[in-house]
Amino acid sequence: MERKEFLKSLGVLGAGLLVSSRAQSCDVIRTEIAGPFVILPGQMAATFRTDMRENQPGQLHRMKFRILRNTDCTPIENAEVSAWHCNVDGNYSGYNTSGHIVLNATGQNWLRGRALTDANGEVEFTSIFPGWYPGRVTHVHLQVKINSTSVKITQFTYPQAEKDIIHSSAPYTAWGLDPVPASSDGSFADGTAGQVASLTLNEENQSWDSFLEVTVPDLVVLGVKNEERITGGQFELGQNFPNPFESVTCIPFALRNAATVSLGLYDMQGKRVALVQPTELPAGDHTFTVDLPSLNLPQAHYVYELTISNEAGTYHQCKRMTSI
Q1: Of 35, 26, 113, which is closest to residue 74 (Cα–Cα)?
Q2: Which residue has the higher pLDDT, 229 or 286?
Q3: Hey, is 251 helix, strand or coil?
Q4: What is the pLDDT of residue 255?
Q5: Residue 125 in contact with residue 134, Cβ under 8 Å?
Q6: Most exposed: 25, 56, 216, 288, by fewest CB within 10 Å?
Q7: How many CB atoms lie within 10 A of CB 226?
């Protein structure tokens, strides 16, 4: 059967970004391991973006997620979503790995992204379709944080038929079709319910678009032992004031211990538009002032991220602000 005819048989020819709901919309998605190739502290600022491709070859792939709370199935705004996956050759950035080939990608950040959900609880990343490596089915890692607390780390995969179409085209043909079904992958030993993203061809822009609805525990029902504070207890980042603001706003934060501190300002596409260079500050209360006219920035929605480093480690936290 010709490729075009096969696509017609799947009912995906010419479709846009498919947005569908999970069959069990209020069931919390299963937890899966984050590692071994997690986002490193030094990658946090560089990966605050929605386009995570950099120079990696492969099929254009748009990943859309809707984040819901399990208590009432409502969307969660301002949830921080991180996504990462391997490249065509089965390697991860930031590490010296051996997928199909040995590649030292330490210090690199490709195919890793972080962004905040909108009012509909949705966030979309532009990437390339993942490859696979021996022993694992094709998969993507996902982490969701609410108010600086990690509430879910999981993984998801894709439908076999559509995945095979992509992997039967260059540059994936170097390694052939993914030979591992999800049922044989130890990470999905308990099944894949709620962990298979829809996958649809968008002929208009020649992308394959996926969608996954992710239900996570509401923060208020989490036990303390399950909380992962990304601040490390080293600082508290406040909401900017005033907010909304016209042109100038202040960002308050408090350091528990002396640290090297920097502040990044990002637009809603994840592009860094301003940076306060690392500054040594003592313990105590501090404030950064953001003046949009002096930065030649328009009134818009922005995300600010505070990064601190000291003997305890490197920690980050971000919040959204609005200029009107």
Answers
A1: 26
A2: 286
A3: strand
A4: 95
A5: no
A6: 25
A7: 12
Mean local confidence (pLDDT), 251-260: 95
**CATH assignment of the domain containing 248:** 2.60.40.4070
**Which 3-state string (H, E, C) describes 111-137?**
CEEEEECCCCCEEEEEEECCCCCCCCC
208, 257: one domain: no
The residue count of the chain comes to 324
Q: Which domain, by its residues, includes 32? A: 3-221
Q: Look up residue 250 and give its amino acid.
A: C
226 domain-assigned: no
Please provide residue 189's backbone torsions phi and psi, each rounded to the nearest 5 degrees. Answer: -60, -25
Higher pLDDT, 226 or 80: 80
Q: Report the pLDDT value the prediction gives residue 138, as an integer from 0 to 100.
A: 97
Question: Percent of the chain scored above 90 by pLDDT?
Answer: 67
**Where are the strands (E) in the chain, listed by range?**
60-69, 80-84, 96-98, 102-104, 112-116, 122-128, 140-146, 149-156, 198-202, 207-216, 235-237, 248-255, 259-266, 272-281, 284-291, 301-310, 313-322
- Specify the higher pLDDT residue, 32 or 17: 32
- Name the band, by pLDDT with cuts 50, 70 and 90, for residue 219: low
Amino acid making up residue 310 = N
Peptide linkage before 36 cis (omega within 30 of 0): yes
User: Between the CA of residue 50 and those of 66, 96, 236, 289, what are the distances in Å?
Assistant: 15, 24, 26, 26
Residues 116 and 240 placed together within one structural domain of the fold: no
